[in-house]
Design brief:
CATH class of the largest domain: Alpha Beta
Number of domains: 2
Distance between the termini: 38 Å
Strand order of the largest sheet: 3-2-1-4-5-7-6
Strand content: 15-25%
CATH architecture of the largest domain: 3-Layer(aba) Sandwich
Low-confidence stretches: none
Number of strands: 7
CATH superfamily of the largest domain: Vaccinia Virus protein VP39
Helix content: 25-40%
CATH topology of the largest domain: Rossmann fold
Length: about 300
Amino acid sequence: MRYHNPVLLFESVDGLEIDPNGIYVDVTFGGGGHSIEILSRLGESGKLFAFDQDEDALQNALDDERFTLINENFRHIKRFLRFYGVKKVDGILADLGVSSHQFDVAERGFSTRFDAELDMRMSQKGEVSAFHVINEYDEEKLSNILFLYGELRNARALARAIVEAREAGTIKSSFQLKEALRRFLPKSKEHKILAQIFQAVRIEVNEELEALKEFLEQTVDILKPGGKLCVISYHSLEDRLVKRFMRSGLFEGEPEKDFFGNVTVPFKKGKLITPSAKEIQENNRARSAKLRIATKL
């Protein structure tokens, strides 16, 4: 079930500058597209470790002695690589966001297209679902996530409408949520606004930004000098964190200077690559993608 059409496939794997005998990590395995391409460039002694917290991804595990799939969130990358006796790697690739499969399976609750139970968990082991967020968060907390993660200016009004709607009964499905917010969804902007709302709830449910920060911080210890970090992001919240970390090793502020005015940063920042018009035409998911590549110093 190769369910994921990888965005910027060749550009991201090219960015790893693969050593046939090296050790690489694909931290967002999904349908296995990036992993298959990496393995095609590895020699017999090369190794590829892949991470995916989604149990559905296990169905796509590759039958290759050089390949190991770890069913965990990439925020635990260092711990699980150590478990397999790996301390340093030559390159790490991350394709952030939601896979095509997760959007297309109605019951997962990620898509605004289907009427499904409010779930949005990337791992079914997760304790907090979209149902919990929508029905149990107070108005202030709802407002904060809609503003911070959905970048919605009318977050307060949206949060108030959700709280008012659930007073009349539990909001169980995506269409019930949509109906509760109907007055904020003009026809011309309905899809865009719903996408922002769903994004905000999804990020909260899966702790996506916290997990991304934890992962990025660990790459500094895991990558060998000269090792490559390739990250594909799909919205400004992710991309901002990736850009800042690759530039300074920090998520906010500037690195401290030594007595001579020099700064020590973990990476040499490389290219920013965006999809071609042809790729966007063939794969709508690519339209917002940004690939950033950095080299460990």
